[in-house]
């Protein structure tokens, strides 16, 4: 649920694990809110993109995103793994 995703993000912050903007930036990242794009495509004219893509909308409101770096140190990876396992036990 969106509530669980928000709790997960809060607990990650408490552990010093950074997250990206989901679910907080749902409106920014979900194309269903990008009204400037879709009038150019005939198949989307006069349609509610959020309804057309309701499965995507549902998933994004429950998503938690983490940064992944090309040269992410092993210690940082281990810290994320341990933290996420601990948080998952509390949230789920």
Can you describe what's shown?
The longest helix has 18 residues, at about 75-90. About 50% of the residues lie in helices and about 0% in strands. It contains five helices and no strands. The mean pLDDT is about 85. Helix 1 packs across helix 5 (about 75-90). The radius of gyration is 17 Å and the shape is elongated. The protein is mainly α.
Structure described in brief:
Helix content is 51%, strand content 0%. It is an all-alpha fold. The chain is elongated and about 50 Å long.
Main attributes of the structure:
92 residues; mainly alpha; 5 helices
* Fraction of residues in H or I helices: 40-55%
Give the integer mean of the pLDDT values: 84
Number of beta strands: 0
Q: Pick out the low-confidence regions.
A: none
H-E string: HHHHH
Cα(first) to Cα(last) distance is: 11 Å
Overall structural class, as computed from helix and strand content, comes to mainly alpha
- Rough outline: elongated
Beta-strand content bin: under 5%
Radius of gyration (CA) equals 17 Å
Number of helices: 5
Q: State the major sheet.
A: none
């Amino acid at each position: 649920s969106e509530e669980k995703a928000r709790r997960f993000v809060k607990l990650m912050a408490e552990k010093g694990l950074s997250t990206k903007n989901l679910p907080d930036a749902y409106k920014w990242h979900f194309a269903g809110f990008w009204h400037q794009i879709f009038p150019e495509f005939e198949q989307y004219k006069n349609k509610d993109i959020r309804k057309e893509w309701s499965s995507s909308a549902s998933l994004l409101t429950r998503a938690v995103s983490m940064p992944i770096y090309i040269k992410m140190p092993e210690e940082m990876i281990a810290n994320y793994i341990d933290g996420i396992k601990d948080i998952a036990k509390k949230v789920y």
